[in-house]
Design brief:
The chain is an alpha+beta fold and 303 residues long. The chain is 23% helix and 22% strand. The protein has 2 domains: 57 residues, Structural Genomics Hypothetical 15.5 Kd Protein In mrcA-pckA Intergenic Region, Chain A (Roll); 171 residues, Pseudouridine synthase. Strands 7, 8, 9, 10, 13, 14, 15, 16 and 17 form a 9-stranded mixed β-sheet that branches. Strands 3-2-5-6 form a 4-stranded antiparallel β-sheet, with no helix packed on it. Helix 1 crosses helix 2.
């Protein structure tokens, strides 16, 4: 093994994903040869790496030993590798190798999720630029209208942005299918809430070319060779990680005056802000305002 970045060394070992490794390093839970490690540190052959006191072993170079599984996550299981959390996904599966999830599903949600020992493919799949399909079946508390389908499809303002256009299909009065290429926090639930609906059931049925098939809640299977070949082809042009700049050593650039981004006046985000401004204006007093001249004083008249 040549020297490699610390987060890659940890993820390649199968301990966790590279993103989680970064978090452990930031929280100063990683030591290298007895000293607290810093982001960007490189590991050399013979170095001793511990995460939260646990020794991390170098990964085997043989990729055939790596694990890729599809799991039908039941409601109530939490997508975390933290073993002290009750109902964590690692204990739920009970795999003999140390695996970690690719992405996540909310605790109240169910359905398909990938788990692996391969840190490289995790980062490739998670990169938003790859725009990989994820399909969900969603049940809501009210009858689904044509207007709801249209607005969900065209984009909904949540979390300070407007969601990307997506495909939404009505299945029945209270059930619809949606195909996303984004992964915003609780995205579908937030989109529905904005339009006045509450999600009562959410199930992911497909990721890229892999479907749930006959997997029952709580069951898992190894991804087939054909499925992995298609996935590897789909992420072939993806960078493993995004580029990060060392701010401490980066050359200082003059600060540019922030400019307000242009928003299409007909977009959902523009309408949202317009309504918000209108509601705020309605709360203001409509009475006349008077600004006294400088130095002027006012005393009540004696009666």
């Amino acid at each position: 093994m040549t020297d490699i970045r610390l987060n890659k060394f940890i993820s390649d070992s199968g301990f966790c994903s590279r993103r989680e490794a970064d978090r452990f390093i930031e929280q100063q839970k990683v030591t290298l040869n007895g000293r607290v490690a810093e982001m960007g540190t490189r590991v050399k052959p013979g170095d001793k790496v511990l995460v939260s006191g646990k020794l991390i072993k170098a990964s085997a170079s043989n990729k055939s030993d790596r694990v890729y599984i599809a799991y039908n996550k039941p409601i109530g299981i939490t997508c975390t590798t933290e073993r002290h959390i009750k109902g964590n996904i690692i204990d739920a599966i009970g795999h003999r190798q140390r695996i970690f999830p690719i992405g996540r599903l909310d605790k109240p949600s169910e359905g398909l999720i990938f788990l692996t020992t391969d840190g490289d493919i995790v980062n490739k799949i998670l990169r938003a630029e790859n725009a990989h399909d994820k399909e969900y079946v969603v049940t809501v508390d009210k009858a689904i209208t044509d207007s709801f389908v249209k607005r969900m499809s065209s984009g909904v303002p949540i979390l300070g942005t407007v969601t990307k256009r997506c495909k939404v299909t009505k299945v029945s009065d209270h059930v619809f299918k949606i195909i996303l290429t984004q992964g915003l926090n609780r995205q579908i639930r937030r989109m529905c809430e904005f339009l006045g609906y509450n999600v009562t059931k959410l199930k992911r049925t497909r990721i890229m070319n892999v479907t749930l098939g006959k997997l029952q809640p709580g069951q898992w299977r190894n991804l087939s060779t054909e499925e992995m070949n298609e996935i590897n082809q789909a992420v072939a042009g993806s960078s493993k990680t995004s580029v990060k700049v060392d701010q401490a050593n980066a050359p200082q650039q003059p600060k540019a005056k922030p400019q307000k981004p242009k928003v299409d006046s007909k977009s959902p985000l523009a309408k949202y802000h317009a309504n918000h401004k209108s509601n705020t204006d309605n709360k203001r007093s409509d009475g006349p305002s008077f600004k006294p001249k400088s130095g002027a004083s006012f005393r009540p008249k004696k009666r």
